[in-house]
């Protein structure tokens, strides 16, 4: 596993705190005095992190490690540094990374987990100003901002409505009196006029760099990720099922109906064997069905769902994931990572750089090409989706990967 480092590598000397010494990625994070775990020595921490990496933590060890992470606090004084001071610290820190360090392999793995944790804390607790952390030669990527709330609503008769930037409260009306109401903050909802029956199909699609939320006429909430689309009936009345069709990725909070199952159908335009239907009565789950990923995934957060795919039928439980390619497999899921995008986070767990760059490509609306052979290193971490592309690339660059920005194309140069 490769280590990711945060840029603000400096000590804190606050009155009520003790500096976190010895771990480069944790300099800039401080322990509260009296914290129960702040005196943990490196050997003990190394052991716990190695156990976590190998998924061998006992319940007591997991509580001990969580308590240690709970003592970390980001020093807001770091934000007071000028741009020049930040660049100087960054360059000094990066030069130190280039120096060979003779750590045991297990210790290096443990350090990578700690450094990744510090990265997540840093990017969650600092404001993602677009021009902050702009390294020399990174001006092009600095101008590429993160995605935003934007989508296209496709209505009957070929009518299209742009949804981004529209004020809350404005309405679109159907001939039968039903309405599409703009709620603001990237959200539209459908409101029916009584028990309206309609055969009209609508669709909402997000471009790369877009996300949107829609409340369907039955009360089901759907969050669409970038480069995704969902089609659905304006009204579900007189339908045996509440069936929608999805491409890309969406998180569903389904309004419960004991008599009318909710069905999400996905298929692939490039992989004929990837046909999947997720059927529920009322629950929370995520479906990821991008053609450029290795498989389609349905991850259950709460409730129960049935998944039909590859000639089989499986019922999955909360905390499980059904993955579909040529066949269907049900495995334990990392639910926090699966739905992190909905909560404003780009998350990856033991992922190759290609997987991470696919997420970046969709959210920042950039193309990605590779100059050289990509190695098999794995990465784990979290980055705020509000961060500029320059911030994201700088973080990844510190893990021995170089990037070059050419317009809206990112050239990855593995080292």
From TrEMBL:
Organism encoding this protein? Pedobacter yulinensis
The Protein FecR C-terminal domain, residue ranges: 347-412
InterPro entries annotated for this entry?
A: FecR (IPR006860), FecR_C (IPR032508), Ferrdict_sens_TM (IPR012373)
Single GO molecular function: sigma factor antagonist activity
Ranges for domain FecR protein come to 203-306
Source organism superkingdom: Bacteria
Bilayer-crossing regions: 103-123
Any idea what this protein is called? Anti-sigma factor
Q: Which UniProt keywords apply?
A: Membrane, Transmembrane, Transmembrane helix
